[in-house]
Amino acid sequence: MQITTPDIGVDKATVAEILVKVGDSIAENDSLVLLESDKASVEVPSTSAGVVKSILIKEGDSVTEGTVLLELETAGAAPAAKAEEVAKPAAVAETVAPVAAPQAVAQPAVTSSQVVEVQVPDIGVEKALVAEILVKVGESIAENDSLVLLESDKASVEVPSTVSGMIESIEVKQGDSVKEGVVLIKVKTTSAAASAPVAPSVATPAPAAPVAQAAAPVQQAQPAGDVEIQVPDLGVDKAVVAEILIQVGDKVEVDQSLVVVESDKATVEVPSTVAGVVKAIHLQSGQSVSQGVLLATIAVEGQAAAPVAAATSAPAATKAETAPVAVSAASVEAPVAEAQGADKLTKEQQAANAKVYAGPAVRKLARELGVVLAQVKTSGEHGRVMKDDVYAYVKQRLTAPVEAPKAVAAAVASGLPSLPDFSAFGGVEEKVLTRLQQVSIPQLSLNNFIPQVTQFDLADITELETWRNDLKGNFKKEGISLTIMAFIIKAVAHLLKEEREFAGHLADDGKSVLLRNEIHMGIAVATPDGLTVPVLRNPDQKTIKQIAVELGELSKKARDKKLSPKDLQGANFTITSLGAIGGTAFTPLVNWPQVAILGISPATMQPVWNSKEFEPRLMLPLSLSYDHRVINGADAARFSNKLTKLLADIRSLLL
Length: 655
What we know:
By secondary structure, the protein is an alpha+beta fold. Mean pLDDT is 76; it is low at 77-111, 192-223, 303-342 and 403-413.
């Protein structure tokens, strides 16, 4: 099958980049070639799935509409030809159905006319602007006629019609922001003269074999292969490999843990995204790693050949056996695609990338790899960033010595002189810190740069504790531990919706505060290896019972070293509690980039004057530490006072 240059709205264009190689397996709509014309960049998608057989153009070539770009070997092509020789229309229609699906939808088989919605195709970016509408209502158009001109980043793309007919309505207007799947125009089509899929011929046992043979290559299009597992986004610049849980030759399943890494205050097990056999391990214990570092290579097992052997059975049986294989293949590939497709750039970094001269495919690659394009050395004409430039940048970052982060960490603690010699005073015995404690030192040292103040207060929780004791019996029957912490989390989350600065961040330039739209609360948990801080998501939207359940689950995962990277990311306020250990108050350290943290000390019975006499009340000490650059003392006092009132009468949360 030949892939030709579509109508790109200009007389000719230049091949800027070839995005595939001979032998590559591609899916329908995968980008093949990047064309440049004037100030526009357009990626030519594949019209079918298959394997690249030959590439007939090279970079720098000038092409026009209809120029053959490459040859594609599609799955099921040979059996389709056999089916045509046997002259069985039904078999042919079934063989080519996966390729012709979009046309089948657009061409009605029964009604005389039909309204077809033309949508925004995959243009390689999240959104684009409608620069110009090229048609009018009532106008007759042919298939592939340009309908709308879209502009995204530095590219202008004309969206062609997928059908012929008359413009029924235009659903967008100039200046609208659109994305993939948005309906642009509705086209009224006339009925197709030859509607092959409706052929009523009765299939005889004779053509069953060609149909089954045509299905066989579809299964074989899911080959076994090597999948490279990389270190995921841990939420920190670096981590240390604490333990390797697999060996070469081991069989692993999806989500099975491969290695244990320790970063800052967390121990995380990295799972496999595919099932297969471990072919190679690229890390060793004690090695410092960062996101994207190659972890292991896993050989993914191929599909079973049983359905091919059963190809001589009846047509109904062939279809029934082929469908589960397709579903199985999709389920194997889905985790890989999901892992590779996740964006790893902040909105600010993506906005910065939009200002760099690069095509949609390069921008997508940058989002997936977490690359800031302004830092990439360009090789394309006019300073254009190419895919190879991004790969070279990533390779350079991965292979460069990981000394820079260490130097930064050392600089934070470099204010202290070296220890003196204690040999004259009885000597010393060295006790090595746990890995978790070691990687926590740089993060804790950042607190030296935060002007921190602590506000102390007491909350009367006598009534709250009485209510908790009434409830915890029924909770215990359901296997739920109802602690006072669940109530405190709910009260603090409610208060943070009013006092948003306490859950915000100081901007890098020190000129503004970034107010978060959601509340994600870090809860400090003590483990045998040290303190870790898993994150409770959106506690303001949860009930006391839901908070208690999730709190128990997070605490157990922390103690069992089962926390995922996602469990440790995104907090904008932290609560830490001494529980029943002891003490009357303490000054918790603000966990940068947060600006506040609440410390809870053990509650004690104290005599409180009620205007007539002293009465025993259960008082809970609160210690609110805050970044004085963002929060004033009066604001902190008001925050803690509001919190004491909420805890004294939790019913006020309902008002």
